[in-house]
Each structure stands twice: as C-alpha cells, then as structure tokens.
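Hey, I was hoping to borrow your eyes for a little while. I've been puzzling over a protein and I'd love to understand its fold better. The fold is given in discrete form, as structure tokens running alongside the sequence. I'd be grateful if you could look everything over and explain what you see. No rush at all, and the record is pasted right below.
>
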Amino acid sequence: MTKRAMAVAENLDRNLGTAVPQEAMDQRRRLAGLIRTRIAKPATATEKRLWQELNAEVEKKRMTFRS
C-alpha cells in the first residue's frame, strides 16, 4: 500500500472511531430488532403481489444503452 493510501486509511479510522451516543445506539438496536422480526415472517400474498408489480414496473422503465 502506498503512503498516500495508508494516510487515507488512517484518517478514515480516526474519523470513524468517534463514539456514538448511547441514545443513538439504542435506536439502532431497536430498529435492527424490528427489521429482524419482519424478515423472520414469510411474505403475505399481498406483499408478494406488490413486489411483483414493482418488479414489472422497474423492468418496464429499465433504460437500455443499446442503439
């Protein structure tokens, strides 16, 4: 790794090493718990239909870069 790359990596480590307030960590844990709970449940028929509609819409609007 070059000296410049090492300096950038060390700078990132210093910037990311700041402490996060306890309140923010509690909020993140609560959100992570909600996400895990939701993921653990199988999708309902309505949710599956909504995802299929979304996929169809995305495919329809997909841009092609071919001439």
Q: What stands out?
A: The mean pLDDT is 84. The longest helix spans residues 22-40.
